[in-house]
């Protein structure tokens, strides 16, 4: 999977103690989020009036009854506040050295 121009617009986020921050999409997630679950990605966080921030994340799936499951990103670090107009861009996929 190569880097894509299609952004992941953050609709909401929540801290998951011991794991990081789960970022949920504001709209249908971009196509690149359809990769295998738990795929590790390198991303760039874009927030208003702040420099971009490089992050790593994994692709996860969450569901809230009665809605269908949706893809989300589990950020491995807490980047602080994620205002509603923040977004993530894909930089690349982290190779799995164990395979």
How do you describe this structure in short?
By secondary structure, the chain is mostly beta strands. The protein is built from no helices and 6 strands.
The helix/strand class is mainly beta
How many distinct beta strands?
Answer: 6
The arrangement of helices and strands along the chain is EEEEEE
Rg from Cα: 13 Å
Unreliable stretches (pLDDT < 50, length at least 5) are none
Distance between the termini: 17 Å
Strand content: over 45%
Strand order of the largest sheet: 1-2-5-4-3-6
- Helical percent range? under 10%
Biggest beta sheet attributes: 6 strands, antiparallel, barrel
Walk me through the topology:
Blueprint: E1 8-16, E2 20-25, E3 40-46, E4 53-62, E5 70-75, E6 87-93
Antiparallel strand pairs: 1-2, 1-6, 2-5, 3-4, 3-6, 4-5
Task: Characterize the structure shown.
This protein has 99 residues and is an all-beta fold. 0% of the residues lie in helices and 45% in strands. It is built from no helices and six strands. The protein has strands at residues 8-16, 20-25, 40-46, 53-62, 70-75, 87-93. Strands 1-2-5-4-3-6 form a six-stranded antiparallel beta barrel. A hairpin with a 7-residue loop joins strand 4 (53-62) and strand 5. The chain starts with 7 loop residues before the first strand and ends in a 6-residue tail after the last strand. The mean pLDDT is 87.
